[in-house]
Amino acid sequence: MDNPINIQSDNKRYSTGIILFLVFSVFFIASIWVRWIFIAFCSLLLVVMTIELTNALRKNFKPLYYIPILVASFTMLAPTIIWWQYKDLTNWYLLNNSNLPLDANWQTNFIWLLAYGALTFIIAFVLVSTLNVVIRVVLKGPNHLPHAIAENTSALYVAIPMVSIVLFTFAVPNGFIWLVLALITPMIVDIAAYATGKYLGKTHMLPKVSPHKTWEGFWGGTLAGTLFTCIYFMIFFTGNSPLQSIGKSSLFGLVAGLILSISSQLGDWLASSLKRWCDQKDFGDILPGHGGVLDRTDSIIFSVPTALILAIVFYLLKH
Hints:
Layout (H helix, E strand, L loop, with lengths): L3 H27 L5 H22 L8 H8 L6 H6 L20 H35 L4 H26 L4 H26 L14 H22 L9 H32 L15 H5 L2 H17 L3
Membrane topology: Multi-pass membrane protein
GO molecular function: phosphatidate cytidylyltransferase activity
Pfam families: CTP_transf_1
């Protein structure tokens, strides 16, 4: 007979998950018409994620300050400078049939926007991170150098997926479709890995990191994510420029699905390792039944940047 406490905990988890999904979906779908609204929502998530990560790392790094990590993390907004300056090149967040095929300059615009957007982020992050190191060493002494580096690394950990979302929003053709893929695939993988591991799991793969993870769960999640991505590519990435033929899109989908499925699980494992190192179960308790925001977004830490790289390769194959 099921434990009433476990049933209550599961119900709380499901209720919170549904509410989270609905809130997230509202902001995400609204970005089709007002693109900055999803970036604003991600900025709010960034603040919470940064606070949760800092609180966890403070158990092994003292002192560790919120402000330098937050400032460095918010360099993820730096590419919006390019977006603001060249709005006439950013009308492809969600392409419809009347926009296909794109004109002959679409690849040049894509590479240009992506490169300058990424470069703007890199320059901003390096400047802020260097300033943080200099200030800490000058004011606190060289013994604080490891702490400043830990702050910069923490900021990079949460900033990279967020800056990838920003770049998808204005620099990548059909960025909305790519974001759906990058955000949904980890959910598919997580559900399939959990179900497979629960009913078929026998061989533990990471006992020191997460004792409940099994090789059966890993392969079950990977298979489900790969199949989902392949079908997704056949539906949404088949057609005229900048899309591919159904043969190329399905083949690319298989490879992309395998890479995305593994990368999302790597993100989960890294987050689990950090929690183990910090000797805590969750990053926070803001979400009943789930823990912290960072506990719910750990898989996309890797999947969104990975999807960005896959988008670059996919569109360059059109050359």
